Structures are given as C-alpha cells and as structure tokens.
Structure to design on (249 residues):
C-alpha cells in the first residue's frame, strides 16, 4: 500500500491509526478534526461522581467509544475498588469492548461495529423494566436511547467528555492536498472537515472518502463527494477492509 491517507480521528486514536497505516507501507497525514476534552465544570463533575456511585442501580451500562471507556475507567477506579457484579457491561464495537476488558471491566458485545449493529443483538431486544446507562460524550446521537426506550428500557446518559472542532490553519490543512484517500470516522468530523475546506477554499470532493457507516456515507454524498466508500465500522481494520475493496487510485 503506497497511498497517502488523511487520518481525521481525534487523538490519541489518530496517532495509533497513523502507526497502523505506516506499518502497511502507506503515508498517513494526521489532520484530526475533533478534540476530545474531559468535563471540567465542577457542578458537572459532582453530578458525574454521584451517578458513578449509583452505577450498580443499572442493568446495562453501554459505552459508545474508546474515549468513553478511558474517562469512565478513571471514575470507576476512584469510586468502585471492586466493580458491582450485577451489571451487564457493553461496548459498541470490538475495539471499545477490548479496551473495556483491558481496563478490567468484563464487557461483552455482538458482532458489528456500529450502534445500528448493536441494536440487532438479541440481549437488547426485550428490555421492559430494565435500566440502561449510556456513557458517551456531550451531544451524542439519540438513536440508541430512543430505540432502547421503545423496547421498554428506562435510559439515562452519563456524559464524560466534550467534542470540539479543530480549526486547522491553511498550511496544516494543505498537507492533505496530495492525499489519495480521506478517512472520516464520524458525522461531526465530516462536518468540520467540510467547514475547514470551505474556509480555505479547498476542494477535496474528487478524492475518495472512507466513512464508517451508511449514515455518514449519505452525509458525504450530500456534501458533494464523488467517490464514497463505506466501511463496516470506524476502527482501523474496518477502514482497511474498505480500502482493500477499492480499485487502485
């Protein structure tokens, strides 16, 4: 693989992805689109701590991302020297689930990498009188909670981080002009990429963009991207699977 690939993940995942593609012979170009910022407001932190202390009241605790795992692990270490045994811990995607297990949280999941994949899991099909906690960043998608509530669950959120768009200067964004591929891992990241390109009067829509889901692929098409490939998930192996299906570019 001798392609130049723009990697738009937030850190620290961006660095990990760059090393992954370097190991395959590609030339990664790091242009992260979003910053991940821990919650710092004192009132919000007090509310987080209170909910963590009450986490044993939930039947299911679902983590939407690796960032959710990293932040939650810090709080759980402080508040629960031994994790409650009654909870079913769930990660969305294999990468998130693997990180939970590395942190000592006995998580499980189904096959697939997306929220939509998780919702096909039989363990989440009948949820009458079940309490579900979704651990995520502020302003995340409501799809998971809405469908679980339709299945009878009482759903609450625990927001542990914030996402902020990165305003790249012209020179840094220009480093991606020679790229063959753009890897985008979220709708928010794509929206910020579009805003950044427009700000600097750049046109990348003739490049091939790899998206992690049908939802983000459709968003890219609406923004005018001419060559859109959909990966089965946002992790590196899923993105690589989509790249391998492309003709030489």
């Amino acid at each position: 693989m001798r392609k130049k690939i723009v990697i738009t993940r937030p850190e620290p995942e961006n660095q990990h992805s760059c090393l992954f593609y370097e190991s395959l012979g590609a030339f990664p170009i790091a242009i992260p689109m979003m910053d991940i910022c821990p919650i710092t407001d004192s009132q919000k932190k007090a509310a987080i701590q209170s909910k963590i202390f009450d986490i044993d009241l939930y039947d299911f605790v679902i983590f939407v991302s690796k960032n959710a795992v990293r932040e939650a692990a810090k709080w759980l270490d402080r508040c629960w020297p031994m994790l409650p045994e009654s909870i079913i811990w769930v990660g969305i995607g294999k990468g998130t689930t693997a990180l939970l297990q590395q942190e000592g949280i006995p998580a499980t999941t189904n096959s697939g990498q997306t929220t939509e994949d998780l919702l096909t899991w039989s363990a989440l099909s009948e949820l009458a009188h079940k309490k579900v906690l979704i651990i995520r960043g502020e302003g995340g998608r409501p799809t998971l909670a809405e469908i679980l509530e339709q299945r009878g669950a009482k759903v609450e959120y625990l927001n542990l981080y914030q996402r902020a768009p990165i305003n790249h200067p012209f020179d840094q964004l220009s480093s991606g002009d020679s790229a063959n591929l753009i890897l985008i891992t979220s709708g928010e990241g794509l929206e910020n990429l579009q805003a950044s390109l427009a700000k600097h009067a750049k046109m990348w829509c003739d490049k091939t963009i790899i998206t992690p889901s049908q939802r983000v692929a459709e968003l890219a098409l609406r923004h005018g991207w001419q060559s859109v490939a959909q990966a089965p998930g946002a992790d590196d192996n899923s993105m690589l699977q989509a790249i391998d299906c492309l003709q030489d570019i």
Q: What stands out?
A: The chain is about 40% helix and 20% strand.
